[in-house]
Backbone:
């Protein structure tokens, strides 16, 4: 069964304290791994797509990496505005509908 | 360059009433997905549609729920005879292709009282 597990569930950081979020996946035939950011009361905002092991993508303080079993979202010198829930998803089944992890809720304190 | 538009943003219904949720995809996108998010739970797939066709409805309850994406106009998720357990945030997403990244709307928060 296709599955996505994210850890930790919650992460509290001080401003400037770098860290990483983990996304482990089990899927038959990876067709991409997606990272989203979700703010309270809003819809998920697309961040990155990774397609193959070894691939990396960066956007401001965020860098996403991919291996054959997991993906990491590295946050370098975070700021309070980076506080959000970060979601990881993979397309499942034969029709590409996304299977989401439960997310990591990141809080960055000034 | 409008993104995915959902309305209403908030919807309150009494038990037994009908709820209609609307979604206009990104211009040019022909793939529409509906997801449901319950408090403290992840996003769960409900249904995948292309214009005038339901492609995959495996995540949608067989009773009371239906979806459509007509040739003209928005996609509609319809919930008949709502119950308290239907209270959730419902999100629509659209993409340009089956494996392409999906862009989400801001959601409709349904409250059943």
Residues:
């Amino acid at each position: 069964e296709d599955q996505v597990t994210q850890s930790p569930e919650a992460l509290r950081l001080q401003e400037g304290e770098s860290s990483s979020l983990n996304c482990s996946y089990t899927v038959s035939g990876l067709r991409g791994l997606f990272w989203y950011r979700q703010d309270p009361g809003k819809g998920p905002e697309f961040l990155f797509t990774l397609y193959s092991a070894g691939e990396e993508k960066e956007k401001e303080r965020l860098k996403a990496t991919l291996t054959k079993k997991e993906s990491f979202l590295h946050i370098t010198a975070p700021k309070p505005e980076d506080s959000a829930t970060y979601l990881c998803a993979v397309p499942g089944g034969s029709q590409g509908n996304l299977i989401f992890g439960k997310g990591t809720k990141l809080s960055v304190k000034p | 360059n409008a993104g995915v538009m959902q309305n209403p943003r908030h919807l309150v219904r009494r038990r037994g009433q009908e709820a209609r949720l609307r979604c206009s995809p990104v211009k040019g996108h022909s793939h529409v997905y509906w997801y449901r998010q319950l408090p403290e739970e992840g996003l769960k797939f409900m249904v995948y549609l292309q214009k005038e066709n339901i492609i995959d409805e495996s995540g949608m309850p067989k009773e009371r729920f239906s979806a459509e994406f007509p040739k003209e106009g928005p996609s509609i998720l319809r919930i008949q005879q709502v119950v308290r357990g239907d209270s959730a945030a419902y999100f629509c997403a659209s993409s340009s292709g089956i494996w392409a990244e999906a862009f989400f709307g801001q959601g409709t928060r349904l409250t059943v009282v």
User: Anything to note?
Assistant: Chain B has no helices and eleven strands. The longest strand of chain B covers residues 43-50. Chain B has a mean pLDDT of 94. The two ends of chain B are 36 Å apart (CA to CA).
